[in-house]
Amino acid sequence: MEQGGDLSERDQPAVAALRGRILLHTRTLKAAALAEYAGDGTVLCGAGALGEVKDALRYLGTVSVLADPAPYEEHFAGVSDSFYVKPRPEAGGLLSLPHGVDRPGQDQLAAGATAALTPTRYFAAGDDLAVSAATRRVRQFDPSQVIFTVPLAAEWLQSDRDVRFLIGALNRVPHVKALALGSAGDPLPDRASAQRLRILIDNINDVALIRAGLAGLDSYARGAAFVSIGMQKSCRAFRPPDAAGRPDANRSGRPKSYVLHPDLMQYFRTDALAHLYGFTTPPPCDCIVCDGRSLTRFSDDPDDVREAEQHNLATWLPWAEELQEASASDRRYLWRDRCYAAIEAHERAGLQWRSRRDPGPPAGLTLWATQED
Ligand SMILES: [Zn+2]
To answer: How far is the CA of 358 from the centre of ligand 1 (A)?
Structure first.
């Protein structure tokens, strides 16, 4: 097909089906569990994602299903290597085929995915050459079927120059660009980073944000083509390939409970939240999962980890639906007002906690609550 930035390519079937969607990004091994989620669709994440697409389609019916094999968690992009291609056993296991012969992402389409996410390698902060090489290479793929996954070190958001570079480079690609942020900690540790993410979303054509936390809803409110929000903590940002040994590494590797506070719009480790409430009464949760039970009841047992994830989903899903039901021009104001109410709720909670361990509202949330443009 003809290549280039022709706007008529925008409404091609596969990618067009994702427009306006708020997807669930999940690292699940049980597609059946997803049947409880009747939203816009899902992004299955991790090395086993491809094998689960068929199951997910069977359980989820007609909603969108994408597979994110997430090679960016392990492999850096370079000038000569943009996409991860599995070595072929028949070629002795040593050689991968040269670019242009293989078609990264075709296996996803063959498995039934709504569209293909390129298996892009990780872009270290400031590595302009690796990004430029990938933007040249991705143009050989059909933009109606293939989404350009752009896995960025969160440190790209520390520099205005880097943000300007990304806008220029990514706007030369006709595909939908699905940004994902890699960080061992909070990918938006300060207001300036949250602001620069907005600048990317506002200025890149056909941009999406995947594998995000509530930043996904902020990007959606500002007109992102689609977004995906992580079910597990490991799906709300990804760990970069060089993150091993960082101070906040979860050494046990076992999932822990994280709870989204419905009034504060903030994720807490469950034991940290229980500590904050101490001997005072934690609020009951009215979501459909908790049905009035306490927000601090979760342990790190696998059943509780899963129930906390279900609570989190039941908590943000109404916020997502509120944005989707609003007109495009009203969304950002609805979102700002919701975030502002959360900041006010944090002030009240802080008075109740009176704890030096009060982490304060997240930097991103304070920006979303107060900054209009
Ligand atoms: Zn709940």
So the answer is: 21
Looking at residue 40, what DSSP letter applies?
Answer: S
Average pLDDT score, the chain: 89
Q: How far is the CA of 151 from the centre of ligand 1 (A)?
A: 31
Q: Which of 10, 111, 17 is nearest to 62 (CA)?
A: 17
- For a pLDDT cut of 90, what percent of the chain falls above it? 76
- Ligand 1 center from residue 228 Cα (angstroms): 20
Instruction: Examine the domain organization and report whether 53 and 168 are in the same domain.
Output: yes
Q: Which of 235, 268, 287 is the last residue of a domain?
A: 235
Angle between helices 160-170 and 128-138 (to 10 degrees): 10
Gap from CA of 311 to ligand 1 centroid (Å): 4
Same domain flag for 57 and 144: yes
For 4-61, what is each residue's pLDDT tens digit?
444 444 445 678 899 999 999 998 766 556 666 667 889 999 988 988 888 888 887 7
pLDDT in tens, 118-151: 999 999 999 999 999 999 999 999 999 999 999 9
From CA 182, how far away is CA 178, in angstroms rounded?
13
Which domain does 200 fall in, by range? 7-235
Number of domains within the chain: 2
List Cβ<8 Å contacts ≥24 apart for 249-256. Answer: 249/184, 254/300, 255/300, 255/302, 255/305, 256/300, 256/305
Judge if 185 and 315 occupy the same domain. Answer: no
Q: Does residue 119 contact residue 149 with C-beta atoms inside 8 Å? A: yes
Query: How far, in Å, is the centroid of ligand 1 from the Cα of 173?
Result: 41
The answer to the question of residue 246 being in a domain is no
Q: How many residues does the chain have?
A: 373
List the CATH number of the domain containing 170. 3.20.20
> How would you classify the pairing of strands 41-45 and 22-26?
parallel
